[in-house]
Write a structure and sequence with these properties.
The complex is a heterodimer. Helices cover 38% and strands 10% of the residues of chain A. Chain A is of the alpha/beta class. In chain A, helix 8 links the parallel strand 8 and strand 9. The two termini of chain A are 40 Å apart. In chain B, helix 1 packs antiparallel against helix 2 and helix 2 runs antiparallel to helix 5. The longest helix of chain B has 21 residues. A 5-stranded antiparallel sheet of chain B has the order 1-2-3-5-4, with helices on one face. Chain B is built from 5 helices and 5 strands, in the order E-H-H-E-E-H-H-H-E-E. By secondary structure, chain B is α+β, with helices and mostly antiparallel strands. Chain B is globular. The chains are: A alpha/beta, B alpha+beta. At the A-B interface, helix 11 and helix 15 of A face helix 1 and helix 2 of B. Bound molecules: adenosine-5'-triphosphate, iron/sulfur cluster and magnesium ion. The site of adenosine-5'-triphosphate has 25 residues of chain B, from helix 2 and helix 5.
Chain lengths: 456, 137
Amino acid sequence: MNESTKYHALDASKCIGCTHCMKSCPTEAIRVVNGLAVIDHERCVYCGQCHRACPTHAFYVEQDDLDLIRSFKYRVILFPAIMIGQFPERYTEDQIYNGLKKVGFTHVYEVEQPQQVLIDSINEVINDQETPKPAISIYCPAIVRLIQGRYPSLTENMILRKAPHNLAAHFAIERLMKEGAQREEIGLFYATPCIAKIAAVKSPVGESESVVDGIVNMNQLYNEVMKVISDVEVEDNSEQRKNLSSEGIVWSLTRGESCHFGSRSIAIDGIHNAVRFLERLENDQVHGIDFIEMRACDQSCAGGILLTGNRFMTVERLERRAKRYPAAKDISQETIRANRIELKEKLILEPIQPKPHFIFGKDRMKAVEKIDRAQRIVCFLPGIDCGACGSPNCHALAEDMVNNKAKMSDCIFLQQMWVDEGKIKAKKAFLNVQKKWGTDRFKADCNKRGRRNEGF
Amino acid sequence: MKLTFTIQGGDFTHAGHPSSEVKKILKQLAIDGKTIKNIVIALYEAEVNVVAHAWKGTVNVEIDENKITIWVIDEGPGIPDVELAMQPGFSTASSKVREMGFGAGMGLPNIKKNTDKLQIETEVGKGTKVKMVNYFS
Ligand SMILES: Nc1ncnc2c1ncn2[C@@H]1O[C@H](COP(=O)(O)OP(=O)(O)OP(=O)(O)O)[C@@H](O)[C@H]1O
Ligand code: SF4
Ligand SMILES: [Mg+2]
């Protein structure tokens, strides 16, 4: 995998090799090597759990320079409605819009505007007898990657319809070109709530190329807007959200999608909940459900890692905001109707390919042997999943060993036993641990930061 | 490669652990999704039968290059008439089991449908031994 497809990385000067990220990762994609966390980008699904777990904020998100926008004549910021939800109540919607313009954008669009078109299109897929049930939403890109990698057989259940931001990008271009802009004069920027969306926008799955010219970290954008936002109250009358509906505003919240589809639907938020449910689904233990909405973050996008506001308050503000807006079906969408056929095609995604990431080599005979060996190694490990070996649990260590990524002596329990049995010297055992965790780990330091007291 | 699991009769909450573990290994072996699904469905049904109808049991799994063989062995009441039990819709499940969404009488027919070889040995009052074989394509 090349450099440009890593959408998040680790600041080695901040990482203290504490194992929190490693233990929170739903795909066991992190190991601690020489006292630092290392991400396996093939396995990573960009759910952001490691960012949340990190006590030193050592993970950072790759992002485009905001100055990039200056090179375009028309500078469009596309953002999910969730963006508005995180601002303090005292700012009206147009105050926030004006703030975005002061930051340098010429056009401001919330992406969930042509929502009825999307609802109709998704319903078409669900009502099709051929669609495997339950049909699974592709809205959250972290879930898409999780399914591709860990539940490859479920890729065929995914609904091949684009997410709102793609649709909004097409609309924005269309509108500006109607106003006389040339395509190359338009710069489209998407403000993302998470790394998963950055990855989805920059290297989309099921699409040939990205529709936007750059991404903006929502966290950074929030801070930029807060620097310039005016305290003078203005009335909410911007033309730029005339197609925004109440359904669109809550689309990215939990049950925002599932309430529209199928006679029986389920909504799941939180990546670990999703893992447990997908496990059941794959075992064919879920019956009679038509549609599943699944989001990696708790409280869905309100809990995105690049959001500033408290997720519960963001949900509350958006739910209240939604009440002030018309229903999607009541919004006159002549322009949308006129372009219906063309639009229909634009909405369709290419089939999503499975990308299983846990295969033990191509030779099945050898793979059977390896797994067998890993099973036997597990018998000798203590089974407390302490992580002191640098792998997330005893089982993962055993698998790392048979894949030549770890040694028996990485387990501090086995080592201790061998010292006791006189098989290795105490000094050698100490050096092994020091090598794994670095010399600093053994120095007295009252500022050492574990996760003590967090959450109290 | 061999694996062993135990099953506790009456414990519906934890049914499904052996099938999940087996599934994980089959995925690591890059077995195709369709075959994995067949195996997992058959094993899960056999597990649930022990939970629903017997007292306790063990699952023994053997995986080699070309096939998987699974024995689900229980101590339980046994099946008096296997042919009858194999009929779709036949069930002696208690009302309690039915309330939990089981007892449609589809388990054994489903196992039959999803395995390449199925063999049932049973003794009334003692227990049942279900042997299932699936070949990898
Ligand atoms: N391991 C077993 N021990 C004793 N009886 C069994 C066992 N497995 C199946 N049976 C008998 O065979 C019948 C049919 O089994 P089958 O699995 O087809 O249906 P079920 O378990 O009743 O319902 P379902 O599997 O659809 O939830 C059961 O009702 C039970 O009487
Ligand atoms: S739930 Fe929303 S914010 Fe979280 S990863 Fe998915 S798309 Fe991103
Ligand atoms: Mg049964």
